[in-house]
């Protein structure tokens, strides 16, 4: 008995969470085929995005980039900015993994703009944090710290460590009388 696309997707997610990446990718590919046959392009794009994430985890950078790029093109064509922004951010992560820092920074900046347009502060903040670290590591220390601090301020659901960092930066700002 063939599984429905949604069941394949759920099975893929379960396998992914268990760390069974090849099996998860197979399920997502099967779901992708079903969604494509049913002309459910959003869901097909999500499966491509999932496959890209798996391929990145496995170190298959070019396969990851191709899957995410294809997903992003689908989301752009369908005018789904939220998914486009997510795919753009994922693309930044892939470029970073490939050692293509400038392209990663450009992709994250594009994702930040999209998240801003969507007023999605949590994802915008998360992406600013990632960009801040990348800028810092690339030698742009002041820009990296400022970007990281801006990301911390936008987070709607910061972790405990992010809350502590935010508080420490606020104290430093008060003591020094200026931002970083």
Please state the overall shape, judged from the principal axes of the Cα atoms. elongated
**CATH domain fold name of one domain:** Serine Threonine Protein Phosphatase 5, Tetratricopeptide repeat
CATH superfamily of one domain: Tetratricopeptide repeat domain
Distance between the termini: 61 Å
Low-pLDDT stretches are none
- The CATH architecture classification of one domain is Alpha Horseshoe
Give the integer mean of the pLDDT values.
Answer: 94
The gyration radius over C-alpha positions equals: 18 Å
Number of strands: 0
Assembly state (oligomeric): single chain
What is the N-to-C order of secondary-structure elements (H for helix, E for strand)? HHHHHHHHH
Structural class: mainly alpha
CATH level 1 class label of one domain: Mainly Alpha
Give the helix level as a range of percent. Answer: over 70%
- Outline the biggest β-sheet: none
Describe this structure in words.
With 180 residues, the protein is mainly α. It has a domain of 115 residues: Tetratricopeptide repeat domain (Serine Threonine Protein Phosphatase 5, Tetratricopeptide repeat), CATH 1.25.40.10. The chain has 9 helices and no strands. α1 packs antiparallel against α2, α3 runs antiparallel to α4 and α7 runs antiparallel to α8. The mean pLDDT is 94.
